[in-house]
Automatic annotation (TrEMBL), chain A:
<keyword id="KW-0479">Metal-binding</keyword>
<protein>
    <recommendedName>
        <fullName>Neutral metalloproteinase</fullName>
        <ecNumber>3.4.24.-</ecNumber>
    </recommendedName>
</protein>
<feature type="domain" description="Peptidase M4 C-terminal">
    <location>
        <begin position="179"/>
        <end position="348"/>
    </location>
</feature>
<dbReference type="GO" id="GO:0004222">
    <property type="term" value="F:metalloendopeptidase activity"/>
</dbReference>
<keyword id="KW-0645">Protease</keyword>
<keyword id="KW-0482">Metalloprotease</keyword>
<dbReference type="InterPro" id="IPR013856">
    <property type="entry name" value="Peptidase_M4_domain"/>
</dbReference>
<feature type="active site">
    <location>
        <position position="169"/>
    </location>
</feature>
<feature type="active site" description="Proton donor">
    <location>
        <position position="270"/>
    </location>
</feature>
UniProtKB/TrEMBL annotation, chain B:
<dbReference type="Pfam" id="PF20242">
    <property type="entry name" value="Emfourin"/>
</dbReference>
<protein>
    <submittedName>
        <fullName>Uncharacterized protein</fullName>
    </submittedName>
</protein>
<dbReference type="InterPro" id="IPR049457">
    <property type="entry name" value="Emfourin"/>
</dbReference>
């Protein structure tokens, strides 16, 4: 009776549905528990990419976005002056309007593709501050909100100019509210990689780009024309994003052969993230189509499934993605094979 | 007295180093009070110790490693306040004025 239900709802959503004990979810939870018994046959019969999950069957229906943009007006005091809130028209200030739109695009990816209700899964309001500091060449997540500088004008322009950067910062919030990966060494590099992966997916989803069409660049358009470089990082070819007389060369490794040991940057979290970044790209390249579909779901389930330790190493994470691929698509599926092959290519042991 | 400020981290992960070499008596007299105002003994000396000392990392924020003569300090961006902020800002401004600000790789080793 529940086989059709089983055939369109991924197991991780079934598990979550099955755990619901609120009265309004009792029927869905019961159905999910029964459907889980059929997952094996579902996986065995799967040969094509997974269809979208109907919103009515998700464990919690995502609500509309609720965005607030503040202006620090060159100070470093947060959050700053409120300049635009949900539903209000554009202000004409590029940073304000880019941040507002970028938050909306990011919220839409999580809601439409992963059935997630904002970054905490419970409809958290999305706050961002623009024009932070003077000549401030950075963007960051402070644990509760995003913060964007205008750049120094010599190396960097404003950080809201890149949608992948906005998606990157919000993904730090998703990680904080799910796997809570420690921000140091390999766990920290995985934390950074999660932000690059979902930042890239936000950009690809908005542009409706397939894995083959996408640039796989993080922070494209942030550099001023004086810099010899296209972006901060390349997920497709780590280590090739820039090569500049002043900035030096992109230091990201593309496999464990060139893993960087360093005490800087919290143990190289933005450097060694190149390795899992490339693994995700390789899975997307191998499977073709849209990266937010099967590859995105495997990574999302790995991040939010509840089994990833906060101090996960690359190998632990790789095994978790393989397990998620098996759970979603079955052992020996093309998705499972693509995941195994990707980690093998970047020389992370499963 | 040589003063250096190394900034690592940030979403771009580009290391910047600003240095000042205060050699003349005038320069030393100018920099000494700024250096002495910082509570060197109350903060970690290395980035690794700073990560343990300051709980709750904020993703993508900068980390500062500061040296003045034999003294060392490592601070996350949010702790660079008061006299530390004065020292960092003055060093950066003086280095940029003299052309000593630069981006350098900060990799200890590759394996």
């Amino acid at each position: 009776m529940h086989v059709p239900f089983c055939s369109i709802v991924p197991p991780y959503l079934l598990r979550r549905l099955a755990r619901q004990d609120a009265p309004e979810y009792s029927a869905a939870a019961r159905a999910a528990r029964e459907a889980l018994g059929h997952v094996g046959s579902f996986q065995a019969s799967r040969t094509q990419a997974m269809p979208d999950v109907p919103s009515g069957l998700r464990h919690a229906k995502p609500g509309p976005s609720n965005r607030i943009i503040y202006d620090a007006e060159g100070s470093e005091t947060l959050p700053g002056r409120l300049v635009r809130k949900e539903g209000e028209p554009g202000t004409g200030d590029a940073a304000t309007d880019e941040a507002y739109e970028g938050l909306g695009h990011t919220h839409r990816l999580y809601a439409d593709v992963f059935g997630r209700n904002s970054i905490d899964g419970q409809g958290l309001r999305l706050d961002a501050t623009v024009h932070f500091g003077k000549l401030y060449d950075n963007a960051f997540w402070d644990g509760t909100q995003m913060v964007f500088g205008d750049g120094d004008g010599e190396v960097f322009g404003r950080f809201t100019a890149s949608l992948s950067v906005i998606g990157h910062e919000l993904a730090h919030g998703v990680t904080q509210h799910s796997a809570a990966l420690a921000y140091r060494n390999q766990a920290g590099a995985l934390n950074e990689s999660m932000s690059d992966v979902f930042g890239a997916l936000v950009e690809q989803y908005v542009k409706n780009q397939s894995a083959a069409e996408a640039s796989w660049l993080i922070g494209e358009g942030l550099f001023t024309p004086e810099v010899e470089g296209s972006a901060l990082r390349s997920m497709k070819a780590p280590g090739t994003a820039y090569d500049d007389d002043v900035l030096g060369k992109d230091p990201q490794p593309d496999s464990m052969d060139s893993y960087v040991r360093t005490s800087a940057d919290n143990g190289g979290v933005h450097i060694n993230s190149g390795i899992p970044n490339r693994a995700f790209y390789l899975v997307a390249e191998s499977l073709g189509g849209n990266a937010w579909d099967s590859p995105g779901r495997i990574w999302y389930e790995t991040l939010t499934g509840g089994s990833l330790p906060t101090t996960a190493t690359f190998s632990v994470f790789a095994r978790a993605t393989a397990a998620a691929a098996v759970e979603l698509f079955g052992s020996g599926s093309q998705e499972h094979d693509a995941v195994r092959q990707a980690w093998e290519t970047v020389k992370v042991k499963l | 007295m040589k003063i250096s400020v190394e900034r690592t981290g940030g979403i771009a992960a580009m290391t910047r180093v600003w240095t000042v070499d205060a050699r003349s008596k005038t320069a030393i007299n100018q920099w000494e009070p700024i250096v002495e105002a910082c509570p060197w003994d109350a903060v970690p000396r290395t980035p690794r110790a700073a990560a343990e000392h300051f709980a709750g990392s904020q993703p993508d924020r900068f980390i500062y490693s500061i040296r003045a003569g034999d003294r060392r300090a490592a601070l996350p961006e949010r702790a660079v306040t008061g006299p530390w902020r004065v020292l960092v800002d003055r060093t950066r401004a003086a280095a940029q004025e003299s052309g000593a600000g630069q981006g350098t790789p900060a990799l200890d080793s590759r394996e």
